């Protein structure tokens, strides 16, 4: 998905989003992943996805891709393995990619 998105949009100079939505159940079930930029729904040939309002925990990393996003996801999994203070809601989660080497994962919580 990301290779196709990057090939079709070689000059993107804004924050890129990866949105996880339509969760069947939890991280073990089916879900939809959409790559895009804010405001892209103005183009008729593109799909759009709404990021739900609510509370999100943010996990950040910086460095070469894909290592930075892999490390950030490992931090997410580690956090929820041992921490019961927050519970994931599995509505929408999203990643942001900005400044070339900065990533953030926003995890929706109840």
Automatic annotation (TrEMBL):
From the record, give the transmembrane residue ranges: none
Pfam families to which the protein is assigned, alphabetical: Cass2
Q: Where is the Integron-associated effector binding protein domain?
A: 2-109
PANTHER family reported for this sequence: TRANSCRIPTIONAL REGULATOR PROTEIN YOBU-RELATED
The molecule here is called Transcription activator
The uppermost taxa in this organism's lineage are: Bacteria, Pseudomonadati, Pseudomonadota, Gammaproteobacteria, Legionellales
């Amino acid at each position: 998905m990301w290779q196709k998105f990057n090939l079709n949009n070689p000059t993107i100079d804004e924050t890129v989003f990866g949105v996880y939505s339509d969760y069947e159940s939890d991280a073990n079930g089916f879900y939809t992943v959409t790559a895009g930029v804010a405001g892209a729904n103005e183009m008729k040939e593109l799909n759009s996805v709404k990021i739900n309002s609510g509370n999100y925990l943010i996990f950040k990393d910086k460095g070469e891709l894909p290592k930075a996003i892999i490390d950030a996801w490992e931090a997410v999994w580690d956090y929820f393995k041992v921490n019961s203070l927050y519970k994931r809601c599995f509505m929408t989660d999203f990643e942001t990619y900005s400044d070339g080497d900065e990533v953030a994962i926003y995890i929706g919580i109840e």
